[in-house]
Amino acid sequence: MKWALLLLFIASAVYVHLRGRVRHRFGRQLLDHSTFMAPVNVLMYAFSRVPNTAYLDDPGRHFPELAPLREHWQDIRAEALRLRELQHIKAADGYNDVGFNSFFRRGWKRFYLKWYDDAHPSAAELCPRTTALLRGIPSVKAAMFTELPPGGELRPHRDPFAGSLRLHLGLDTPNDDGCYIDVDGIRYSWRDGEWTMFDETFIHGARNETQQNRIILFCDVERPMKYRWAQWLNRFVARHLVAAGASPNMEGDKTGGINRVFKYFYALRLKAKGLRERNQRLYYGLKYLAVILVVALIAWI
After folding, report:
1. pLDDT, tens digit, for every residue of 122-181?
2. Spans of all domains in the chain
3. Inter-CA distances, 267 with 91, 264, 289, Å
4. Which fold has domain 1-301?
5. Rg (CA), the chain
6. 188: which residues sit within 8 A by CB, 6+ positions away?
7. Own/partner long-range contacts of 279-284 (Cβ < 8 Å, ≥24 apart)
8. What's the CA dihedral at 247, 181, 16, 220 to 10 degrees?
9. How many angstroms separate the CA atoms of 13 and 7, rounded?
10. What are the transmembrane regions (predicted)?
């Protein structure tokens, strides 16, 4: 049984690596967090009620409940612009946003509206219209305003869990092809009042090569599944793992368990980066050895 499970894990990881036209180098994918989620993600793909494509054409057709967001995009935009004036769309104040920590170094900023729960208290107070709209759409599990300033970028990456699809609604954008997201090699340029939906477990990255700022509404929408057991699994993982990544906008907002301990892991990460700068061969050797030991432990058990 254990060998069957090990082979299943390896097959799932290989499928995740080969999925799509754009791929990480094998060494990077081996250590990527999506590799460890591969068996669960393969089930999400296999029993998804929506197509497993990089972009999902016409989000409103697959998710009609999202229509109020597009209909009231100007109201949402007004609250986002007010937040920007108050400088509340920003990087995390400390090491308490493990999911997006690496993005902050290249200009990306955010203000959480909700994260697998009801609205953050700060969001309910500062964005009453937007949070009210989101409250009426239970399939939206997470939402935030995100900003990408001129020259900002997100390096190519893939998200770890396939239980959701990502919606981007343009609010205050350059309306220019120089400000874009690239998902599996296909570019989409944001426009005010327009939206796109994509599978964030395909490799994707973004750049703003214009001289204007970009603000969008960013939502994670629950992936609909063909069977109740698959929907239950999706929600179980979201509730017990993804929800632990909650990050605060300000004091009084919820901080998930993963983010409460992230600062300690980040201290170790800084030491690991120091080792990489001093001796890359030793650094990568130790990382690969750790993976081999984990696989060997699974085989031994």
Report:
1. 999 999 999 999 999 999 999 999 999 999 999 999 999 999 999 999 999 999 999 999
2. 1-301
3. 19, 5, 21
4. Jelly Rolls (2.60.120)
5. 20
6. 55, 180, 181, 182, 196, 198
7. 284/27
8. 40
9. 10
10. 282-300
